[in-house]
From TrEMBL:
This is Glycosyl transferase, family 14. One of its GO terms (cellular component) is membrane. InterPro entries: BC10-like, Glyco_trans_14. The chain crosses the membrane at residues 12-39. GO terms for molecular function: glycosyltransferase activity. Keywords: Glycoprotein, Glycosyltransferase, Membrane, Transferase, Transmembrane, Transmembrane helix. It comes from Dillenia turbinata. The keyword Transmembrane helix applies. It is a single-pass type II membrane protein.
C-alpha cells in the first residue's frame, strides 16, 4: 500500500501535466486559427474582392481535376472601369455560366459592383492582387501574368482570351466558344521585324536576338502556353530591367536615354519563341485593330489605332471585318490564311477600339441576334 501511494501521486501529476499540455496545445491551435483567419480576412477586405489570392505554381490544380465543360477565361486588362460592360453583359446573357469565367485587372482598390458596373457578370471579378500599370512598361505584362495566374487556378479554364476595355466581340458566345475550343493551338500574332530597333543588346545572352519577336498584345492561349508565361522566371526579369519607356528630354540630350522595348508587343511572342512552342501557335491575333493608313510618314512613328464611333461602326463596316480571311505580314512576306484546326475560318472574333456609341450600334444592329432594347434599359436601371 505504502509503495502505491507515490505511484498514484505520480499518476495524478502526470495526468495534471497532460491536461496542462493539452490545454496549451488547444490554446495554441486556437490562436493559430485566429491569426490565419485574420490574415485571410484582412487580405480580403484590403483587396475589396472575394477572390482568393493565387497560389504558387507548385500547388496549381492538375488539368484532369475538373469535371464538366471546359471554360474560356475572359481576361480583361482595363485602366479603371469597363465602359462596354453593357455589350459584354448582353454577350454573356443566356449562356451557361459553366462555359466561361471572367477575371479583371484594374487599378488597385477599384471594385466592380452595382455602383461602378452595369452588368452583374463582372461583380467581384477584379483581382485582389492587382498592381499599378504604366501603359507600355513591364508592369503591363506583369498585369497580364497576374490575370493568367489567377485564371490557371481554375482547372476548368482551358482557353485564355486577353481583352482590353475597348474590345468588342463580333459574334455570339456559342460561335466564339466553338471557334476557340476547336483549335488545339494558341492564337498569338508573332513575326520578325528586321528593321525594328526595339531589341536591346543588353538582353543578350538571356534573350538571343534571333528569338526576338513582335506582335499584337491581344492573345488567346491554351493552358500550356499560359503556364509557360506565368512560370517564366528568366525572360520577364530582363524585360523589367531593360525596358523602360523612354523619356525624350530635348533640353539635355546627353541624359541617359532609357530603352523603350514596347514590352507588351514583344514579351509573350519572344518568350514563346524561346520556349520552342512556335509550332503550336496560329501566328495571328483574333482581335482586329484598324490602323490609320492616311497618316503621313512622320506620324507613322506614333501610329494609332482608329477608334470606332457610332457612325463608323455600321453593318457594312462590321461585315467587312468579319469577312477578312487572311492577313499579310509585310516584314516576312508571309500571308497567313486564317484557319482553325486546319479548317478555313474568319480571322477575327473581336475588334478594338470601340467607343460606347460604337458598341451601342453593334447591339442595335443585332450583332448577337435580334436586339431587345428592354434588356439595355433593365441593365442601366
Ligand atoms: C450564333 O452565331 C452564329 C453565326 O453568326 C449563328 O449561326 C448561330 O445561330 C448563332 N447562335 C445563337 C444561339 O444565336
Ligand atoms: C455550354 O455548356 C453546356 C453544358 O453545361 C453545353 O450543353 C453547351 O453546349 C455548352 N456550350 C456553349 C457554347 O454554350
Ligand atoms: C481537329 O480536327 C481533327 C481532324 O478533323 C479532329 O479529329 C479533332 O477532333 C479536331 N480537334 C478539335 C479540338 O476539335
Ligand atoms: C487619320 O490620320 C489623319 C492624319 O493624321 C487624320 O486627319 C484623320 O482624322 C485620321 N483618321 C481617323 C479615322 O482617325
Amino acid at each position: 500500500m505504502a509503495k502505491k501511494a507515490p505511484q498514484a501521486q505520480l499518476l495524478t501529476l502526470r495526468i495534471a501535466f497532460l491536461h496542462g499540455l493539452t490545454l496549451v496545445i488547444l490554446v495554441s491551435v486556437g490562436l493559430c486559427v485566429c491569426v490565419l483567419y485574420r490574415l485571410h480576412y484582412t487580405q480580403e477586405t484590403l483587396g475589396g474582392s472575394s477572390m482568393v489570392p493565387p497560389r504558387s505554381s507548385t500547388s496549381r490544380p492538375l488539368v484532369q481535376d475538373f469535371e464538366g465543360p471546359p471554360k474560356i477565361a475572359f481576361l480583361f486588362l482595363v485602366r479603371r472601369n469597363l465602359p462596354l460592360d453593357f455589350l459584354w453583359g448582353s454577350f454573356f446573357e443566356n449562356t451557361d455560366s459553366a462555359n466561361f469565367s471572367i477575371y479583371i485587372h484594374s487599378e488597385p482598390g477599384f471594385v466592380f459592383d452595382e455602383s461602378t458596373c452595369r452588368s452583374s457578370f463582372f461583380y467581384g471579378r477584379q483581382l485582389s492582387n492587382s498592381i499599378k500599370v504604366k501603359w507600355g512598361e513591364s508592369s503591363m505584362i506583369q498585369a497580364e501574368r497576374l490575370l493568367l495566374e489567377a485564371a490557371l487556378e481554375d482547372p476548368a479554364n482551358q482557353r485564355f482570351v486577353l481583352l482590353s476595355d475597348s474590345c468588342v466581340p463580333l459574334y455570339n458566345f456559342s460561335y466564339i466558344y466553338n471557334y476557340v475550343m476547336a483549335s488545339p493551338r494558341s492564337f498569338v500574332d508573332s513575326f520578325l521585324d528586321a528593321k525594328e530597333k526595339r531589341y536591346n543588346p543588353k538582353m543578350s545572352p538571356v534573350i538571343p536576338k534571333e528569338k526576338w519577336r513582335k506582335g499584337s498584345q491581344w492573345i488567346t492561349l491554351v493552358r500550356k502556353h499560359a503556364e509557360v508565361i506565368v512560370d517564366d522566371e528568366v525572360v520577364f526579369p530582363v524585360f523589367k530591367e531593360v525596358c523602360k519607356v523612354c523619356m525624350r528630354n530635348l533640353n539635355s540630350p546627353l541624359k541617359l536615354k532609357r530603352h523603350d522595348c514596347i514590352s507588351d508587343e514583344h514579351y509573350v511572342q519572344t518568350l514563346l519563341a524561346m520556349s520552342n512552342v512556335e509550332g503550336e501557335l496560329e501566328r495571328r491575333t483574333l482581335t482586329y485593330t484598324e490602323w490609320n493608313q492616311s497618316a503621313t510618314k512622320m506620324e507613322r512613328r506614333s501610329w494609332h489605332p482608329v477608334t470606332f464611333t457610332y457612325a463608323s461602326a455600321g453593318p457594312q463596316r462590321i461585315k467587312g471585318i468579319k469577312g477578312i480571311s487572311h492577313v499579310y505580314y509585310e516584314t516576312e512576306f508571309r500571308t497567313e490564311w486564317c484557319r482553325v484546326n486546319s479548317t478555313s475560318a474568319p480571322c477575327f472574333l473581336f475588334a478594338r477600339k470601340f467607343s460606347e456609341g460604337a458598341a451601342m450600334r453593334l447591339l442595335s444592329d443585332g450583332i448577337f441576334g435580334s436586339f431587345d432594347a428592354r434588356s439595355l434599359i433593365e441593365m442601366t436601371a
